[in-house]
Amino acid sequence: MPGDRPAPVSDGVLRVALDVPRPTLFDYLDCGTPPAMPGDRVLVPFGAREQVGVVVERAAKSAVPDARLRRIVRVLDDAPRLPSDWLELMRFLASYYQRPLGETVVGALPPRLRSARALPHAPQVPACASPCFVPTHAPNVGQACAIEAIAAAFGTFRVFLLHGVTGSGKTEVYLHLVARARDRGAQVLVLVPEIALTPQLEARFRAAFPAEHIAILHSALAPGARARAWLAAARAEAGIVLGTRLAVLVPMPRLGLVVVDEEHDPSFKQQEGLRYSGRDAAVFRARLAHCPAVLGSATPSLESWQNARTGRYQRLVLAERAVPGARLPEVRIVDARAHRTEGGLSAPLLEAIGARLARGEQTLVFINRRGYAPVLACEACGWAAGCTRCSAHLVLHAADRCLRCHHCGLQAPIPRACPGCGNVDLRAHGRGTQRVEETLGELFPGARIARLDRDSVRRRGALEEALGAAMRGDADLLVGTQLLAKGHDFPALTLVCVLGADHALLSTDYRAAERLYATLVQVAGRSGRRENPGEVLVQTRYPQHALFAALARHDYAAFAEAQLAERTAAGFPPAVHEAALRAEAKKLSTAIAFLREVAAAVRPPAEVRVYDPVPHLLARRAGYERAQLLAQSPSRSALQRLLARWCERLYAQPPRAVRWHLDVDPIEFD
Q1: CATH classification of 141-318, choosing from 3.40.50.970, 3.40.640.10, 2.60.120.10, 3.40.50.300?
Q2: 9-83 domain in CATH 3.40.1440.60?
Q3: What is the pLDDT of residues 78-132, one digit of tens each?
Q4: Residue 108 and residue 270 in contact, taking contact as beta carbons nearer than 8 Å
Q5: Type and span of the H or E element at 638
Q6: Distance CA 88, CA 96 (A)
Q7: What are phi and psi of 646, to 5 degrees?
Q8: Contacts of 406 (CB under 8 A, 6+ apart)
Q9: Which CATH architecture group holds 330-373+430-566?
């Protein structure tokens, strides 16, 4: 077959990255005319099959004997050659997150480009040099200052933290900066944390740049559409690339500006395969392109806040809402212990909702739990419906008449009686969005109620339809989870009621308070974005908690400083750098023993502390027992040296009955 016969060594050795779970590049001979170059996609023989790889470098000779070297089958020239800065980004990601370079390089390509099938030919459309910009509003003083400060840095690498309160017009700042970058002939990369936020931001960008070629990139696209968007960016036909974290991996030869919206959001961290941070990769991408990076948020991550404090980032503040007359909502903390509740809603919340209904204004009731109730239990014997594959309860979904695990997806019918004692009087404990919707329907029978969570918008296009109806005022009461918390503008919404905020305060995750504050600020920011004043009622059993006091004052700076002090005292990031080696096996003892073996085999540098392996908080998931080994250090380089030695040993081991992965800068511990 092609590639079996060796070619003269004088034709050159190609180091090719292949998508295989080994930290090795594979050497091939090049007989092509013209020769294959770094960045070329090539078809190569690999075992008994042919596989798409990427040439990473050329070498004078190989450690493999000449007689064993095979030659590439052909160069795939239906897509642009991957540029050197893109290859440098891949090297950084593979090195920092400790993944094989081949897996990183080929895995960063859309599925369609990993195939040897020819890509459809597309007309070569030159990027528009001077696109038309249709601004929505003239910038106010704060926005104009931010625009000028960032625009002055075009052509150089600098990171700006755009700290703007909700409704302060951060998107308008982005649009003006994009217009200036496009006037310079540069491409712009704009990242959003979730697919759900893409359509509305796309609409804003298309309205502002009606003649512009805008490429949209996220994982929900069909393979063909994703490949076309990738090619448009790589060919510099698309002046603007808008997408989720995977968009940071697309080649952009004329990149001149990087924007990361809601930079604090955990969704920017990939949780499988190459566990990279889209935000951090975007900053490194801007560094390679010698262009500014803008990180926007009303509640910056503590890592970014710390970088601004130390001068690595420049913080720009938008302290007021952009719409004239619009003010930040008044935040009231409601003591749940002091009021009688109906269906989990206290009297002050019900009175406020009734007043809004009487005035024809909209209310959002936020509870970050979908389903009907988190637990179905028997009060006679204490039995509770649990997942057989995970160490978690099954969630009751009344609308679908089933029990469902939100970790592995297991679904089971609702039992007629308790499996333990036969009691038929099973009780639902706690509340989710379905139960809150039911309660509101009983208490306000004339109100139009819309529930928005992942269960209600599973059908393609359902989320856009539901959001459009809510924005038009077709619903009086909105009940939802984080799908409604950020980025949406509901003109008639003046009241936000928050339920279940206390759950995060009881978490063992040191990031729980930071995430709760961000969520509350985001959901509160949906209220009062026009001339009518907004109000936020947070129902809690811990009204004296410092988090709620900072929230009521709209004082993120005080909250962030207090959190940084606590983290530093406790030895948590960003005061230290962190990595977690995780293992899964059918038995917990097997996973623990595996981690102990790795820890014992490599002596850590003096600056690195390695903790004993422990079970996960969610010890069993999808039938596997899970454990983790945590390493911390004030020195990033010392930690990286240890991780590299761990991986050298781990990749050299033969396959065994343990699945493992390494998570650098982890953000999840469940």
Answers
A1: 3.40.50.300
A2: yes
A3: 999 999 999 999 999 999 999 999 999 999 999 999 988 878 665 555 554 556 8
A4: no
A5: helix 636-652
A6: 12
A7: -60, -50
A8: 370, 371, 392, 395
A9: 3-Layer(aba) Sandwich (3.40)
